[in-house]
Automatic annotation (TrEMBL):
<protein>
    <recommendedName>
        <fullName>Pentatricopeptide repeat-containing protein</fullName>
    </recommendedName>
</protein>
<dbReference type="GO" id="GO:0003723">
    <property type="term" value="F:RNA binding"/>
</dbReference>
<dbReference type="GO" id="GO:0009451">
    <property type="term" value="P:RNA modification"/>
</dbReference>
<dbReference type="InterPro" id="IPR011990">
    <property type="entry name" value="TPR-like_helical_dom_sf"/>
</dbReference>
<dbReference type="InterPro" id="IPR046960">
    <property type="entry name" value="PPR_At4g14850-like_plant"/>
</dbReference>
<keyword id="KW-0677">Repeat</keyword>
<dbReference type="InterPro" id="IPR002885">
    <property type="entry name" value="PPR_rpt"/>
</dbReference>
<dbReference type="Pfam" id="PF01535">
    <property type="entry name" value="PPR"/>
</dbReference>
Amino acid sequence: MVSVISAFVMSEALDLERWVHAFIDKRSIENDLELSTALVKMYANCGYVEKTVEVFEAMPFKDVKEWSSMIVGLIVNGLAEYALVIFSRMNEAKLADLVFKLVVVIFEVGIEFLISCELD
């Protein structure tokens, strides 16, 4: 099911995406962390922020991937202030340090890549 949702993320076909979510609910398909994260990304990509928040808040457990998906989804939809609120909640959940470290590593790798491109 996650593969199906992932295919729809790029399509921005909200009606079809809603149908998939209704299918999941109707068939009582287990809505695990991976599936919930795919739904968050799917709804955020279509600009359906209300549903994005609803799915995110319904997750009983969230790890870095879920928090990050929600934050990026909010930023992409022009809700940077709300993204900061979510980041603050993530910080309270003691996960923000992991994201910061990841961003630093990605930044450093990017800098090294740019330097190597300039040297070539």
